[in-house]
RNA sequence: GGCGCGGUAGCUCAAUUGGUUAGAGCCCCGGACUGUCGAUCCGGAGGUUGCGGGUUCGAGUCCCGUCCGCGUCGCCA
């Protein structure tokens, strides 16, 4: 080692020792007669003093000219800080290193930004110079946290007899689900591998193989548009268990959640975690991933709306739609017309709502709105009562299809919850959403599509609905929700070839197609498949949520931009004509 | 693909209704300084206002196109 200690290590007990430190020049204070250098490495910051009597004027001069972010080595004795000069902002603030020997290991030209600077540079710059950005303490902490979380996960599953198995990255494209990333085959002209969207099929095969408990920290790839919490390549903790039901899988994960919460936040969670069915979640929160850190639940007033004169409400109710609303406690006077117009714009543009109806609750408890003359006093009173309105509240309503009211109100609730700071940002909320529907209707293509994936088992009591009423058929599927974010999702799988066949039929996958695409799985299910199920946890999201961040890129060392490029390596890039030729590919001008 | 925000000095930002030579802080360069820790003081350098076109006597500012970054909807079994 070039060094004897790290920059975060020295304390008063080291006073008098001769030590060598290596690190980056975080900052420099040049007084002419002596120079103070803050030397930084991963472990901390130590003040180095280059001055008399240890250093001669030439050394002082040299040190005074060192550039920020240069890598240097300094040797000297640890000395106490002068009387009253202790820096309690630093762990090493009681001491300093009096430099006797100084070496520049690598000089740094003026960097585009420095890790220690006050204002955070633009994100594009941070991504281009990620090696500088990663020197920032905040990035270091995020990635340390990530490392800790992954270790907790690995330890936990190892203790519970899970086998860590690696599954292939080069696989076969499965047309269901997200868009695949494709890799052309050199050996097989016109054929392509697909990068895994998840190790789903492999882990089921491992269950058939009798592995009983499988786990993997798996990279997954989906060629879909990005979001603040979504990257095209991401990490899942993927697991699968045999001879289990939904409660077994949930119980296993709850143990992990409890341990993680305990180790990271010190919070002692009481299990089991709250559970809610999908139906209930949509009814109360309009989303399958409700943020339970605050209330502001959705209230349905369709039955009242059906009676009123106001056309927007009655029209929605008469045409099979819904009128649902939320209550903003004490916000009547806080929300100007302009602010309400902004919210109206938001629900129109983002969720296709036709408008946003609102009422102010007056001092006497009566409801007022620009449209209140279209309501009888009695109806207004009923609406107020339904939402438990108090004087000073603001009530917001959407009158639309079930779907639009769900999405719009869930959007409003999420946005307003954050804007009005209705919850403690450090608070964590964990819960399960269960009993998802098996199928969704794809109106464009006029067919059923699997809500989770085509291997999801229906609830035993809904088995006959597969044939009679697919829309009402519920699945043995469960999502873990943390702070309104989907932090994981899993299912019990179909282990019966006949039921699998039935699901494929319903999805419009005929026997031949099923055989072509999933023949190996159907074979495996035939040759002695145990009942099995599992879950995949979004590792990046876990880290993001436990770090209290709202952006997944902050917990990934080398993330991609919204257009899926890497600004540092400039991936993706063009390739040589020769490479294309070997792959039997030709590009087309766009 | 839609909607929205942004792009001005190396960095973070400002620039009135379209009007003088596009400013400030930080950084950088030179000088001063025996204790600073956001050092201080003096002086200085630094600009194709993302790119292309248009309107205008005059464009950082208005219009059209385009590229890039961010947010969001669609999308994400």
Biggest sheet, spatial arrangement of strands: 6-9-10-22-21-20-17-11
Question: How many β strands by DSSP?
Answer: 22
> What structural category arises from helix and sheet content?
alpha+beta
Largest sheet: 8 strands, mixed
If helices are DSSP runs of H or I spanning 4 or more residues, what is the number of helices?
17
N-end to C-end Cα span: 54 Å
Shape: globular
Helix content: 25-40%
The stretches of 5 or more residues where confidence is low (pLDDT under 50) are none
Task: Produce the secondary structure layout.
Layout: E1 18-30, E2 35-41, E3 44-50, H1 57-64, E4 71-80, E5 95-106, H2 123-128, H3 130-133, H4 137-159, E6 163-164, E7 182-184, E8 192-194, H5 200-208, E9 213-221, E10 233-242, H6 246-265, E11 275-277, H7 278-285, E12 299-300, H8 302-305, H9 311-318, E13 322-328, H10 337-351, E14 357-361, E15 367-368, H11 377-386, E16 394-400, H12 402-419, E17 430-434, E18 439-442, E19 447-450, H13 465-468, E20 477-482, E21 485-492, H14 497-506, H15 511-526, E22 532-538, H16 539-546, H17 577-582
Parallel strand pairs: 3-5, 6-9, 11-17
Antiparallel strand pairs: 1-2, 1-4, 2-3, 4-5, 7-8, 9-10, 10-22, 12-13, 13-16, 14-15, 14-16, 17-20, 18-19, 20-21, 21-22
Helix pairs in contact: 4-6, 4-16, 10-12, 14-15
The chain binds one RNA strand of 77 nucleotides through strand 1, strand 2, strand 3, helix 2 and helix 10.
Describe this structure in words.
This protein is of the alpha+beta class and 590 residues long. It is 30% helix and 23% strand. Helix 4 packs across helix 6 and helix 10 packs across helix 12. The protein is globular. 35% of the residues are buried. It binds one RNA strand of 77 nucleotides through strand 1, strand 2, strand 3, helix 2 and helix 10.
């Amino acid at each position: 080692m070039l060094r004897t200690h790290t920059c975060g290590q020295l304390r008063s007990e080291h006073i008098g020792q001769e030590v060598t430190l290596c690190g980056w020049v975080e900052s420099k204070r040049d007084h002419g007669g002596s120079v103070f250098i803050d030397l930084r490495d991963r472990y901390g910051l130590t003040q180095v003093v280059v001055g008399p009597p240890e250093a001669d004027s030439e050394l002082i001069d040299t040190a005074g000219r060192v550039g920020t972010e240069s890598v240097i080595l300094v040797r000297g004795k640890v000395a106490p800080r002068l009387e009253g000069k202790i820096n309690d902002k630093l762990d090493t603030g009681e001491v300093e290193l009096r430099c006797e020997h100084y070496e520049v290991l690598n000089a740094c030209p003026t960097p585009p930004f420095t890790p220690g600077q006050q204002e955070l540079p633009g994100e594009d710059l941070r991504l281009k110079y990620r090696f500088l950005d990663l020197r920032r303490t905040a990035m270091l902490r995020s990635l340390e946290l990530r490392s800790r979380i992954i270790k907790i996960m690995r330890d936990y599953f190892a203790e519970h007899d899970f086998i860590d198995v690696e599954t292939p990255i080069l696989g076969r494209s499965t047309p269901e689900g997200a868009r695949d990333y494709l890799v052309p085959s050199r050996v097989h002209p016109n054929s392509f591998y697909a990068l895994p969207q998840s190790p789903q099929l492999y882990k089921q095969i491992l269950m058939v193989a009798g592995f009983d408990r499988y786990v993997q920290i798996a990279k997954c790839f989906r060629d879909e548009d990005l979001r603040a919490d979504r990257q095209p390549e991401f990490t899942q903790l993927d697991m699968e268990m045999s001879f289990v039901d939904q409660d077994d899988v949930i119980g296993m994960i709850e143990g992990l959640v409890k341990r993680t919460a305990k180790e990271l936040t010190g919070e002692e969670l009481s299990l089991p975690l709250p559970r809610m069915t999908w139906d209930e979640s949509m009814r109360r929160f309009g989303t399958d991933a409700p943020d339970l850190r605050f209330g502001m639940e959705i209230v349905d007033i369709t039955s009242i709306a059906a009676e009123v004169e106001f056309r927007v409400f009655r029209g929605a109710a008469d045409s099979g739609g819904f009128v649902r609303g939320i209550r903003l406690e004490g916000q009547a006077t806080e929300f100007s017309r302009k602010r309400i117009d902004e919210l109206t714009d938001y629900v129109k543009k983002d969720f296709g709502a036709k408008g946003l109806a609102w009422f102010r609750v007056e001092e006497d408890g009566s409801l007022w709105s620009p449209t209140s003359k279209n309501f009888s006093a009695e109806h207004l009173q009923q609406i107020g009562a339904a939402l438990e309105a108090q004087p000073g509240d603001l009530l917001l309503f959407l009158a639309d299809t079930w779907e639009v009211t769900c999405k719009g109100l869930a959007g409003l609730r999420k946005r307003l919850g954050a804007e009005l700071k209705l919850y403690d940002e450090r608070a964590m909320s964990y819960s399960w959403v269960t009993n998802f529907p098996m199928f969704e209707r794809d109106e464009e293509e006029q067919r059923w599509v699997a809500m989770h994936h085509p291997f999801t088992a229906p609830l035993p009591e809904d088995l006959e609905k597969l044939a009679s009423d697919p829309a009402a058929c519920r699945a043995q599927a469960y999502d873990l929700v943390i702070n309104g974010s989907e932090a994981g999702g899993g299912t019990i799988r179909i282990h019966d070839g006949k039921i699998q066949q039935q699901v494929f039929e319903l999805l419009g996958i005929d026997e031949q197609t099923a055989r072509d695409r999933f023949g190996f799985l159907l074979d495996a299910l035939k040759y002695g498949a145990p009942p099995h199920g599992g879950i995949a946890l979004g590792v990046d999201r876990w880290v993001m949520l436990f770090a209290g961040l709202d952006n997944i890129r902050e917990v990934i060392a080398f993330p991609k931009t919204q257009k899926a490029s890497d600004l540092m390596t400039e991936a993706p890039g063009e390739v040589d004509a020769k490479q294309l030729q070997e792959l039997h590919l030709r590009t087309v001008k766009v």
